[in-house]
Amino acid sequence: MEIKRQKPVVAAYHYDQPNPEQTIETKLQVGFTPLNTEDPNYPKENSIIRCILDFRLVFEEYIISGRVSQINHVINRKITNQTDVTEEEVSEIVAPLFDIVKRLTYEVTEIATDEPGLTLNFQTEA
């Protein structure tokens, strides 16, 4: 699948101290929305997809949360809903968003804790 990506957007990123009186769980939510274009010159065989990653990662010492997104142009492929792509293709489309969260988390935790940063691994065990 050929994908041309626009610049990713970090809409929110939080490093918070946990509140011991609250029970908060880790949550990862990936979604995407096919977008339409008003441009009559945009190739009809291509698709525009907006990907969003909402995340909340709970650790004993801190909670990392936020939202990142990116607009993707899928070349020579019509995608109108999420059922038009396989799980593997969804992973390929959203991979840069996970990379951004990894990079941000490493840097922020390194600065905040004055220790080596936290290295995240979003790979699922098979």
UniProtKB/TrEMBL annotation:
Superkingdom field: Bacteria
Alphabetical list of Pfam families matching this protein: DUF1149
Protein name per UniProt: Uncharacterized protein
Source species of the chain: Enterococcus canintestini
